[in-house]
Amino acid sequence: MEDELPKHLVAEYGGEFILKSLANSDPRRAIKEFQEQNGLMDPVSASAMSLLDVLGVSRAETYKGLMQTLREKLLASIPTLGQTQLDSLLSETFPYIAIPELQSIPLALLERHPKVPEPFLQKLADARDTSLYKDLPLSVKIQIWEVVQDLFQSEVFILFTQYINEATAVTTGYQMVLTGSAQNPKRRRESNPILQQLAKYVGSSVVLYHQTLHFIRTLFVNTANAAFCTLRSELLMALHDLGVAEIRDADPSHRFTWCLDACIRDECVEERRLKEMQSYFESLPANDATYGDIAMVLHDPNACNMLLRNILSVVTELMETNRSPKKHGKLKYLSQLVTLGCKAHDVVRTQTEFALPKLDKSIMNEFYPLFIQLLAADRSETESEVKLGESILPFITAFELSRKVIFLYTVSRIRERDVSSLRRLLQTLSKLEPSALEDLSFLVSFVTEVALLGERFDPTLRHVLLDQFLLELVPNSVLLHENMIKIVADHSDRISTRELLQYLSKTWPIAKAIQEEPGPDADRLRIVYSHLFDKNAFIRQHLDVPLEVDTTTAPMDVS
Questions:
Q1: Residue-averaged pLDDT of the chain
Q2: pLDDT, tens digit, for every residue of 202-260?
Q3: Structure confidence at residue 544 (pLDDT)
Q4: Pick from 125, 472, 454, 182: which is nearest to 302 by CA?
Q5: Whole-number Å distance between alpha carbons of 342 and 405
Q6: Predicted local distance difference test score (pLDDT) of residue 553
Q7: What is the DSSP string of 107-175?
Q8: Are 478 and 525 in contact (CB under 8 A)?
Q9: Nearest CA among 414, 416, 415 for reference residue 429
Q10: What is the C-alpha to C-alpha distance for residues 109 and 137, in angstroms, rounded to an integer?
Q11: What are phi and psi of 75, to 5 degrees?
Q12: Helix, strand, or coil here: 92?
């Protein structure tokens, strides 16, 4: 095919030709010559046209009817054309793509073409701001995106923004303790229209899939938002669900992600699946960059929290059977998987540490034995748990794995309304740096479990969770401040006005100071306080808060 597309007497070319003809000769003569050169030439047609003239049918109506008939016949023949015929016909008809009456022909040819020549794709990309581009079949857009990356980026970043904002609002994956039966991952993916749209955009294009993963990794590095890890995992599995073999075969993390997805579905890491994961890691070459993708898959809260629940289950079983955790193979491997997930941001950012991390020996030899003692003391309600909490502090300070395990256990104690255990656990956790407590899964689960208590959130439990824990941390963490007010707002109808005012006397001055400086922190606090004030008009009046409080916040824009 020639580099330049052939010029036809359409659009600007046709207009220029007619203008020149009319300017350079007698207009009537020019029109007659144009009709003779471009009209139906054979004698039979000429006779038929004359008859139609006599019958009062205009030439415009005649040519329009002929065009419609020929167009429909040509469209009907396109599915039967071979590759050479497709190429030839596309070259002849592409110049007419901007003409509404003829547009369907080149569009049908483009949709049928498995590999549209690049000059056509570039022409279509240049029309990105027109209805023509918007109306292109998705299969054609995919071929354009493979050539023009910035067009694809602008399309998928819109979906990324929608997905992340939905992920921050819908926090099911962040639940450390399941509030019901686990949701089937496949049904969760099928019910997510944004994810399904992204999967359609990628289609079976390995080029676009790798570009999408590159975008996701970059955004994860820039934001540290775990929702991008969820997106990375869910996109692969959504394409797996759709049976897109090209993507499955092109992503070296597929086998592991598929196995982990089955564990999430069953809420259990069975021995056979554990062995499958071990076999997968054994097959990976040393220092393989795939470890970065696996780390992201493991950092997905759906995966991480499932693994943590399995760790707690193993430790509980060891406690009940009076066995040592020190050489327990499954516990060690689950802990390594969680640790790799915890390192995801650093691994992807630095492109180093491409290996399954070795656990610090103290995790198996000291932390888990102490944790088992804590569980046993908790069941027997002995005071030795106080010292155990102090003994565990160095581990939850140094290791994110240990911290997450204790977070999970703490949330489970809220569900059981175990005031004694919570008092001791939260006393230990309060000694951590506030930033160490800003674990989204922990905070989401903390708030959710308290909300589920309803009327059982009695003054004693409230004193332990709010007065002795969150309230003390409010000055040092906006995120903990936000979640404190969420709980107060959710239960404000069960808290006396006097107690509400006592809480707000400590938190509202801090919130007012933060809201004086526009930004995400101010927006987050404005929303939760607005929710509280909407439910308690008296509190709003007492604090002299203006009514015009904006209860919305700008969505995150990842572009």
A1: 89
A2: 999 999 999 999 999 999 999 999 999 999 999 999 999 999 999 999 999 999 999 99
A3: 75
A4: 182
A5: 12
A6: 47
A7: HHHHHH-SS--HHHHHHHHHTTTSHHHHTS-HHHHHHHHHH-HHHHHHHHHHHHHHHHHHHHH--GGG-
A8: yes
A9: 414
A10: 11
A11: -60, -40
A12: helix
d(CA 258, CA 360): 28
**How many C-beta neighbours within 10 Å does residue 270 have?**
13
Give Cα separations from 27 to 12, 22, 35, 307 (angstroms): 20, 5, 12, 83
pLDDT tens digits, one per residue of 142-185:
999 999 999 999 999 999 999 988 866 556 678 888 756 567 89
Give tens-digit pLDDT for 81-104: 898 999 999 998 898 888 888 889
Alpha-carbon distance of 438 to 478, in angstroms, equals 9
Question: Both ends of the chain: CA-CA distance in Å?
Answer: 38
> Under 8 Å CB-to-CB from 172, ≥6 apart: which residues?
183, 188
Buried b (16+ CB within 10 A) or exposed e, 372-406: bbbbbbbeeeeeebeebbebbbebbeebbbbbbbb
Q: Please answer whether residues 219 and 180 qualify as being in contact, where contact means their C-beta atoms are separated by less than 8 angstroms.
A: no
Reported as a single tens digit per residue, the pLDDT across 346-376 is 999 999 889 999 999 999 999 999 999 999 9
Any idea what DSSP says for residue 466?
A: I
User: Residue 383's pLDDT is what?
Assistant: 56
Please check the confidence at residue 2 and state whether its pLDDT lies above 70: no
DSSP state, residue 184: P
Higher model confidence: residue 26 or residue 366?
366
CA distances from 89 to 86, 114, 272, 475, 550 (A): 5, 15, 56, 71, 58
- 447: tokens are 């708030």
What does residue 533 show for φ and ψ, rounded to 5 degrees? -70, -35
The single-letter DSSP state of residue 494 is: G
Using CA atoms, how far apart are residues 491 and 511, in angstroms rounded to an integer? Answer: 20
Q: Residue 555 — pLDDT band, cuts 50, 70, 90?
A: low
Under DSSP, is residue 55 helix (H, G, I), strand (E, B) or coil? Answer: coil
Angle at 232 between CA 404 and CA 188, to 5 degrees: 80
